[in-house]
């Protein structure tokens, strides 16, 4: 079976009975407690002020440090730029210095090569000078020997000339001989006539070279046997007697015209 709900019954049973208005409340009967909210409020206000000051100072210090850091960074960047420029300048100077050293080294090597070449030329010229001195000394010695020989030969010729001139005049007349120059030093031309019985004016001649101590016949017209000429010249060089030589050469030329 269901129960029937009656509002009046329920509210009246649960709601307390109404008290008089002037009756004391239960809250008034509780003891009063002081929690110190004002002091806490003041302390919180002071803390908030200090915290705000701390934050403001922190922000200021951070801004100052940031600005100081930026200034330092700018100074470092400027210093780095200056140092980089100085490094580039030093690099250029170093490169220029290295090139100068390389040029100096090349010039030094060239100077050493030139000095070596000049030294070699000096040594070669000194050797050539010494060789020339030796040759000059030898030449002077030869010249002195030749001068002595020529002087002795001239003396002999002078001594012989006193006898040769009358004898030569005799042989010129006796052998129909004429002596001429050839235009060459130390060479005489002996011309004979009356060597051809059929034609007395016909001439025969030879040239005698007296440049050296050993005489020689350079040229003969008409042509005769060279061995016969050499025998005549050998007798002349041995005896230094011109008369028999001229007589012998006239005989050879006369025989060649027959």
What do these coordinates show?
The protein is an alpha+beta fold and 258 residues long. 68% of the residues lie in helices and 9% in strands. It has helices at 7-14, 37-174, 226-239, 242-256, and strands at residues 177-181, 187-192, 204-209, 216-221. A four-stranded antiparallel β-sheet has the order 1-2-3-4. Mean pLDDT is 81; it is low at 1-19.
SSE diagram, text form:
Layout: H1 7-14, H2 37-174, E1 177-181, E2 187-192, E3 204-209, E4 216-221, H3 226-239, H4 242-256
Antiparallel strand pairs: 1-2, 2-3, 3-4
SSE pattern: HHEEEEHH
| Radius of gyration from CA coordinates | 76 Å
Which residues sit in consecutive blocks of at least 5 with pLDDT less than 50? 1-19
The total of beta strands comes to 4
Mean pLDDT across the residues is: 81
What structural class results from the helix and strand content? Answer: alpha+beta
| Helix residue percentage | 55-70%
N/C terminus separation:
213 Å
C-alpha geometry: rod-shaped
Number of helices: 4
Strand percentage, roughly? Answer: 5-15%
Strand order of the largest sheet: 1-2-3-4
Largest sheet: 4 strands, antiparallel
